[in-house]
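worker-3 :: picked TetR/AcrR family transcriptional regulator
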Amino acid sequence: MASTSAKVREVPKPSPRLRTDAAANRTRILDTARDVFATEGLGVPMSEIARRAGLGVATLYRRFPTKEALVAEAFAEQMGECAGMLDAALADPDPWRAFCRVLTEVCEMQARDRGFSKAFVTAFPHVTEFREMRERAERGFVELVRRAQAAGALRPDFDPADVVLVLLANGGVHAGTSQTTMDASRRLVAYLLQAFRAENTAPLPRPAALPLDAALT
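worker-3 :: tokens ->
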């Protein structure tokens, strides 16, 4: 006669070895993705990232079901740095220093890691973190421009869309080694910041209506 009390079937827990392997695979995927995106951009296929990580495509998709999910996780740390940079600039009582700080650090980030800069300006509709950070950054930069112009430090005809021109110019700096590229980028930005001072008021052509993702180079 069958027992009236049914036994509860327990689901076996993953072994410590399996959990360790899964964590190692995830780290390997993210490290590989950061390197590939930084040097070759976001167009590298998921299958190629898996191959370079030494893993199967199925393993990659188990961890990151979409390219957007992988990009968001790979650059989560940089997103945090970007948010901190913006908060520090908005808290700075010196509007011109705050404006210069943001422009300089954004261009350094672009020169150092082209993968992140492209991820940041790419419209990823399903990655909430990137969408919200983009919107926050755009609002914050508009406010920095307003403050610097109100203080009489930034030329009055500077338009927030001009930051896209800066990113386009800075994105074109490829000077051999990473250090030379960084040095060239810093010098370019220093030249531009001098041109943005309020005392340089020679008339300019009208600003171009450039969206942020026009800076993809």
